[in-house]
Amino acid sequence: MAAPVTLAIDAMSGDHGHEVLVEGSLRALEDHPQLKLILVGDELALRRALRRHRNAPVEIQPATEVVAMDEPPSKALRNKKDSSMRVAVNLVKQGRAQAAVSAGNTGALMAIARFVLKTLPGIDRPAIISPLPAVGGATHVLDLGANAECTAEQLVQFAVMGSALVTALHGIERPRVALLNIGEEEIKGNETIKQAAAWLAESPLNYAGYIEGDGIFLHPVDVVVCDGFVGNVALKAGEGVAKLITHFMREEFGRNLSTRLVGLVARSVLRQLARRMDPRRYNGASLLGLQGTVIKSHGSADAVAFANAIAVAVSEVEKDVPARISRLLGASQFAQPAAAAQ
Q1: ∠ at Cα 200 (330, 192), nearest 5°?
Q2: Calpha distance 36→25 (Å, rounded)
Q3: For residues 165 and 189, which has the higher predicted lDDT (pLDDT)?
Q4: What is the CATH number of the domain that holds 165?
Q5: What is the tally of helices (H) and strands (E) in the chain?
Q6: How many whole angstroms separate alpha carbon 89 and alpha carbon 8?
Q7: Do 230 and 86 lie in a common domain?
Q8: Is residue 19 part of a domain?
Q9: What does the pLDDT read at residue 116?
Q10: Least C-beta-crowded within 10 Å: which of 57, 156, 171, 298?
Q11: Enclosing H/E stretch for 208
Q12: Peptide bond preceding 222: is omega within 30 degrees of 0, i.e. cis?
């Protein structure tokens, strides 16, 4: 039987209110019998949402404030110390929970988590990582928005963190790591990218070189490294393309009677395609590099998607991802190469 796992759930943040987050939490409990949840937020509202589930392994931790989705991170950090987000992360710091999950303001969550939990030794900045659908499975991409500008050393740290995560969650001993660039040739890219490439080439990681934007979805790599500005643009562009394809398909299959009949014949294939591309399957981005586990759910997540984010937290707790990152980062082979130091 799996060891018990306790998670702190920011049950008030996100776009759809606490009812959806509570429903998602209850779904996660059905899939993970070893799980115990601490729902953080308005006590009365949460008790009402749980009135039909009084025997569920759920505890309520009151919090009187909520961080708005458009609230500046600095304001949330300074002025809302009793927010559901802050209290959930505090529970991890206190050892009452092994991880925190929130669908709230990304910038505020990163600021709070970094302030409360601190970064691992040897990590300058935390990074956001998430799997994206790709040929052959999924590709883990970081950073997806936490750090708009990065040094070569920080990109190498991201590569270490991504490799440790993929090894822990998927059992791939030597994940293939690539740098996102404007071309695959060695002469392409700015000096930061070139320095990071030289560093990674001499590291113990399984460095596969540069890939372009399409390589996130088409190349056989496990981890793609980039700064947060580029990563977030790539993420949103990919999401937009997926929605565009869905829109075009609906238009074409609904154009006339014959195309509607074709759609009926192809319904099972279309349903399977929709399942494989369903963004809810990939919900749950990790804030890597912290002395604790924090998972960011998409703000617009429904109950199914939020349950998947909780599942990501369970997996990372069970695999002790922060400890794996520390061990890999501590390898002496990560000394800066001469090519990167010049």
Answers
A1: 110
A2: 10
A3: 165
A4: 3.40.718.10
A5: 14, 11
A6: 7
A7: no
A8: yes
A9: 96
A10: 171
A11: strand 206-211
A12: no
CA–CA separation, 154 and 162 (whole Å): 12
Residue type, 50: L
The confidence band for 220, taking pLDDT boundaries of 50, 70 and 90, is: confident
Query: What are the tens digits of pLDDT across the range 79-125?
Result: 999 999 999 999 999 999 999 999 999 999 999 999 999 999 989 99
Q: How many CA atoms lie within 13 A of 133 on its CB side?
A: 15
Name the β-bridge partners of 296.
102, 285
Q: How far apart are CA 94 and CA 6, in angstroms?
A: 12
* Angle separating helix axes 152-170 and 321-329, nearest 10 degrees: 130
- Residue for token pair 């369970």: 314
Q: Which residue has the higher pLDDT, 318 or 239?
A: 318
Residues 151, 234 share a domain: yes
Question: Is residue 29 within 8 Å of residue 7, measured between CB atoms?
Answer: no
Q: Which two tokens stand for residue 256?
A: 């006339």
Q: Which residue has the tokens 């899939």?
A: 31
Residue 307 domain-assigned (yes or no)? no
CA–CA distances in Å: residue 185 to residues 152, 181, 210, 340: 18, 9, 7, 18
Decide if 328 contacts 305 (C-beta within 8 A). no
Residue 299 lies in a domain: no
Q: Is 340 left (phi over 0), alpha (psi -120 to 50) or beta?
A: alpha
Rg (CA), the chain: 21
For residue 225 the two structure tokens come to 């490294």
The whole domain housing 267 covers 127-279+327-341
Q: Confirm whether 108 is domain-assigned.
A: yes
Q: Would you say how long the chain is, in residues?
A: 342
Q: Among 55, 86, 117, where does a domain finish?
A: 117
Give the domain-ending residue among 117, 151, 166.
117
